[in-house]
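Q: What structure does this chain adopt?
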Amino acid sequence: MTDIDGLRRAAIVGVALAVVIGIVATPTYFAAFGWDLEAAVFVDPEAVLGSGRDTAVLWRWGFLGDMLFSYLLLLPLALFSHRRVGERRQWRADVGLAGAVAYIFIGGAAAAILAHAGGSLIEAYDGAGSAERSAILMTFHVLREAFVFGVWQTLDGLTAGTWALSVGWLLLTDRPFVGRLLVVLGVWLWALAFVTMLGIHSLAVLGGGLAVAIGAWIAWIALERARLVPVGR
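A:
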């Protein structure tokens, strides 16, 4: 078995574990927010504070699961994708790997911090007086601004977008479907980061941008197929 075969197997195992953990952790995460989609996506403190210690447990496991399936378990995939495309444009593949490593470890660290710090704040809120509750709420908002908007929706967007765009661009020749999908997703992630920098936090903008990206991918494939069809057929 060659080195790249070993990386391929590790990537498959990592992605499979990520899927399994994601199936368990994602409902746990949303349950902590009372199944409020917008509150969960933008980690709204008001949706969890005052809801009891059981919510703190759900919060911790949801965020720790996210640390694994959204970040750390993707490291073998990052290494495999770098090795897979590295022989074509080494510098471009290296840029992609740098983006992947930054995304995985910085984003994973943010998830771990949110899991423990957020869980502790939820527990502390239950037994606190009105003045202390105001301080806890303010602290929670600072935590969200730093790690959700600062790391996840800005830095993660730029680093994961760089990873996707780099690998996608290098796969355009022999894996056109996947390559084009990664390119448009990379652009969408960059756009998400810049929208967050403008202070826009909207599910409509998030979903609309993703729909535009998928539409662009389908149109790109259709145009390429039309270009390859011989005239007169």
